[in-house]
Automatic annotation (TrEMBL):
Origin superkingdom: Eukaryota
Protein source organism: Scyliorhinus torazame
Name assigned to this protein: Cytosolic fatty-acid binding proteins domain-containing protein
Any one Gene Ontology molecular-function term assigned to this protein's record: lipid binding
Family that this chain belongs to: Belongs to the calycin superfamily. Fatty-acid binding protein (FABP) family.
InterPro entries: Calycin, Fatty_acid-bd, ILBP
Pfam families cross-referenced by the UniProt entry: Lipocalin_7
Amino acid sequence: MAFNGHYKLQRQRNFASFMKAIGISDDLIESGKYKEGTSEIVETGDHFKITVTAGSEVLINEFVIGQETEVDSPTRDKIKIIINREGKNKLVAKIQNITSVIEITGDHLVNTTAIGDITYKRISKRVG
């Protein structure tokens, strides 16, 4: 269960550019830049529950590896995706022109999401 744990956002790159590209308003981008983020991942076999908290905003998604599921996107739209595991420390989701990779490297959770030529990267440290 490589992903189980609590993670605190340490740094992010290209937040504003990525959020603008997916349709988030400038006001929400500005307020979101400075929110401390935490993630909790509960991995039970192939079932995952990921809870992301930023300020008072909470986003909870659950999925089973390899099965189509509906999740809430950052825009709060419901999207259908399939998330696959590559090795034991990497999850990959692709939808239209967006690719998202979540991986464990040591005690860090690295989430890299790309849309076109814009890559957004979040690095969080395991805190529990």
